[in-house]
Design brief:
The chain has helices at 14-29, 34-39, 41-67, 72-79, 85-92, 134-159, 168-181, 185-198, 203-219, 223-230, 236-256, 259-269, 273-287; strands at 101-107, 113-120, 123-130. With 290 residues, the chain is mainly α.
Length: 290
Amino acid sequence: MASDTPYEFKEVCVEDVVSKAMVELESALAGEHEEVLVEKKAAIMEIVRKQVETDANLSRKLAPLVTNEAESAELEAVMSTVLPLDDVQLIKNTFLFETYQVEVYKCSIPGPKSFVKFLREGEEMFPDMALDSSGKVLDASWLQWASIAIEIFMLVLSAVGIKVSFNQRQMAKVTRSVERIIQSSAFKKALIAFKTAWSKGGVWNRARAVFDFLRKSFSAGIFWKIVKTVLSTMSLWDYLKAMAIIAAMIVAAFASGGLALIAKVVLALHSAVTLIQKMANLEVLEKIQV
């Protein structure tokens, strides 16, 4: 299924994007670790420049394939000429990362009721919830949205070769933080738009939906809040490097039309079985009457 709007590749000036990415990074950090940032500025700028150059090269090579909505194998072949093979594999495996599963089930004892359970690697993530009020249904929906948002932002990390992992306690803490972040009015609009676009089906439509979701979260001032949350277990220097790489990638993506990032999303979506199920869960939750 072809996407609704045409793709547009824009050639970028590397130095211009590097400059804007550094400004974006400093704004995103908002005074955090200022001394380290000043001390390591040259090293950080080099990290940013390398990422921008990589993204500009990749966008240029992928542009004709994205315009024609090529098969994933073609996208992967081109990416493999620019990115390390481990990074390409990381993108492909993005959605194999598990936040937690949300399972809606019914129990007829003592009376017909709907419940939801939250599992991670077969273990309880949060206590089971009885969906016996509209408030409880909404709470369950927000926890499902939090899981979806985290997994999409894990794709942002995978897109630039960053790998993070969480134990059960860390995942629960990140989830609760993201759950609070996404309940802003501006972000709710982004979620609704994403759900509508996703429902059209087709890997390319859904990849565009993910890209537009990231762009809207950026405009709403939410993007960096979630990024910082998912990077919260890193050491200081790894955190600053990751922030710099992501700043470079997202500024380059918005400047160039997003083709490289959209192509990476397409590659990742082929392993997105659980994400598809989570989007379907939202429909199930919406239909529960209490």
